[in-house]
Amino acid sequence: MTYLSGDIHIRAMNFLEVRPLRLEVLRAGMANQSVEFDGDDEATTVHLGAFDETEVNIGVSSWMQRPFQPEPDLKALQLRGMATAVHLQRHGVGALLLEAGLNHAQENGFAVIWANARDAALNFYNRHGYTTVGEGFIESVTQLPHHKVVKYLLR
Ligand SMILES: CC(C)(COP(=O)(O)OP(=O)(O)OC[C@H]1O[C@@H](n2cnc3c(N)ncnc32)[C@H](O)[C@@H]1OP(=O)(O)O)[C@@H](O)C(=O)NCCC(=O)NCCS
User: Fold this and answer.
1) What is the pTM of this model?
2) Among 102, 130, 110, 105, which residue's Cα sits nearest to residue 118?
3) Which candidate, 72, 46, 76, places its Cα nearest to that of 61?
4) Which of 30, 91, 113 to probe ligand 1 with, by most ligand atoms within 8 A of CB?
5) In the chain, how many H helices and how many E strands?
6) For residue 81, which of 32, 29, 34 has the smallest C-alpha distance?
7) Which atom of ligand 1 is nearest to the CA of 127?
8) CA nearest 79: which of 105, 52, 108, 56?
């Protein structure tokens, strides 16, 4: 924990800046090294990054306006590309990114946040108020088991 004793700050990034950490964390050891997401450069997409006191990027998350299919009339935000630098996981960086994304959602009138969550990260999302919904599935790029998670903001 000493490494993170200084300030961690969260700020918006552009879509090119988030890709190195996506590659390092989310594509490690995988055949498919693609880190470009459909919607990365849309005007409504927000990329939020965590930085240590020396401006090293230690976490990324991307928030895209995308319908939540079971309730397509709700203004919905999809969280994608959530990743914390491997050596700094379980130090609270992810929690800070979720909090920043939630603030963004609330400030912009989103009714729901959802994600296709890796099963390995389900506890993390559940602890932050995201409910697991539906059947599990294998996500095509990573070939890892996933579930949808959802958090309603206006109910
Ligand atoms: C999932 C992920 C984004 C979470 O980010 P993180 O920075 O590790 O998140 P946090 O540190 O806030 O919380 C993670 C866990 O560490 C625990 N934790 C946080 N600070 C801690 C501390 N000081 N001491 C011990 N545990 C701590 C949290 O309670 C949480 O536990 P839980 O998962 O059982 O709920 C990160 O682990 C990651 O990048 N994993 C690999 C990629 C991945 O799976 N991404 C998600 C794709 S859907």
Assistant:
1) 0.95
2) 130
3) 46
4) 91
5) 3, 7
6) 34
7) 35
8) 105
